Amino acid sequence: MSKQYFATSLIPNAHKSDIFSVATSKSYALTCSGSSEISIWNAAPSSDHALVRTIPTSHRIGIHHVCVDESADLLAACGFEGDISLYSLSTGTRKTTLSNPKSSYWAIAFSDPAEFLVATALNGTITVFNTADDAIPQCGYLQTKGSPGLAIDYSSDGKFIASAHENGGLYIFSTETARLLHSLPGHIKPIRTLAFSPSSKLIAAAGDSCVITVYDVASAEQVFNLPGHTRWVMALDWNVTGEYLLSGSFDKSLRVWSVESTECVASQTESDGPIWAVKWIQTRSPQGFLSAGTDKTIRWYREATGG
Fold first, then answer.
1. What is the CATH number of the domain that holds 205?
2. For residue 226, is it within any domain?
3. pLDDT at residue 307 greater than cutoff 60
4. Is 35 within a domain?
5. How many Cα atoms sit within 13 Å of 139 on the Cβ side?
6. How many domains does the chain contain in total?
7. Would you say 255 and 247 are in contact if contact means Cβ atoms under 8 Å apart?
8. Which helix (H) or strand (E) holds 24?
9. Which domain range does residue 135 map to?
10. Per-residue pLDDT averaged across 273-289, rounded?
11. Looking at the domain assignment, is residue 207 inside a domain?
12. What end-to-end distance do the CA atoms of the chain give, in Å?
């Protein structure tokens, strides 16, 4: 059964360069780009998604990943120079900068709640930071096979960390033992995005193969594949109920997939360039999402409802 989504707001030239990452909380959407600032937007479904504030950062050559936890008043950004910076969401005050003397950091993710921050690096290592301590100390390392880590996620139940790599490696670690649980098969090309489902029972991954693969976390078995994109898949995100998966691609399209039917139930092709980032807005009804990419435009969508 198909679903209908319509554009509710269009923000052209939202940044001065490509928008590489989007993060959402209950109230806000955060975007970052090849410029050094983080923009915070009103994410309420009934709003006009106006700019709330802009946070200048120390990332002078741009930011490629951002994540947020509104309840912890914390956001993190990773820049092209390889450092991670943490800020207060409400005030924009910088808390600290994290540097890796051995390799550049790349992808980042918070636990839920944001007691921990995890980060991949270009040498393949994964670092775990304790954000509950004001000093944000390193509190653990996870070892992979050495290929650059391009994506990372922390399961909502707190039990798993997953990382995706340039060589097609996809790994799931136990947070209890800090040991590798699964090395998941199915990808030989770079994986650029991954996401645990809200229940933490499934994980989706995609990248240069153009096919989204969904796995069972407990068994490490492939549950289903979602073909359809014709170029790299750059971003994935589950809606709050886990019924739908959102994807954005270099083919300039975004797609909504039904997990139950394993079919694409909606697609949008309004973007004037490749899509780097997609995120659901964290509300149950009406459902909505936003996308951004190389055309520097943020597009907001909402589910069409009857009546």
1. 2.130.10.10
2. yes
3. no
4. yes
5. 14
6. 1
7. yes
8. strand 19-24
9. 15-231
10. 92
11. yes
12. 18
